[in-house]
Amino acid sequence: MGLFLSTAFGFPTVLFTPLLVVTVVYWLFVVAGAADSEMLDSVDDSGDAVGLSAMMGRAGLDRVPATVALSMLVCVAWFVSMMGSIVTSFLGTTSTPLLIALGAVVLLIALVAAWAVTSGLVMSVQRFLPRRRGDSKHELVGRTCTIRIGEASGGFGQAEITTAGGASISIPVRTTGGEVLPVGSTALIFEHSTEDDLFLVTHFDAALDPGQS
């Protein structure tokens, strides 16, 4: 137990131990229904991934929720760091510069291994997963939105819509044929104008929604 604790809270494993604790607590909350497994997934007004989601995309780990990929990275990095630190402890050296150098090597190996293992796991299961992507502008057509900031008309309009990832984004909207939609009303997006980069909307009657009973 002494070796385990000294390694877990020694360099470089100590860099990952707090992250591992946070990861375990987070997934306990997810299991209890107090947290969302996609809480770190986010997109901008264009539907493109931003923040941690964008980082995971650049690392090739965007086929699973950002929280899943990050948890895998932390777990693998912690495990490899622990094993590497235990192995180097058997050398019995007391030289501080050498211990720091060995720790830095273990840290580098842990980071590379974390990315490699996580990427391999994501690639191995991606054939069984639906394609994960933010809501593109074209995909928003046919969705409903809520008019915000005054009325929506042929000259001005701003609406709010919730993406597939659960984020609320603001989009520019316009009506046609002189239609005016008051603030707070529900509108149906029926077209995206690529020329002006805005969405054309019309009044949405919930009574006509086939999903309503």
Features:
single chain, 213 residues, alpha+beta, OB fold (Dihydrolipoamide Acetyltransferase, E2P), 2 domains, five-stranded mixed barrel, 5 helices, 39% helix, 15% strand
Structure description:
There is one protein chain. By secondary structure, this protein is of the alpha+beta class. It has 2 domains: 2-128, no CATH class; 138-208, Beta Barrel (OB fold (Dihydrolipoamide Acetyltransferase, E2P)), CATH 2.40.50. 39% of the residues lie in helices and 15% in strands. The chain has a 5-stranded mixed beta barrel with strand order 1-2-3-5-4. Strand 4 (186-193) and strand 5 form a beta hairpin. 26% of the residues are buried.
Secondary structure: helix percent: 25-40%
Strand content: 5-15%
Overall mean pLDDT stands at 83
Total number of distinct structural domains: 2
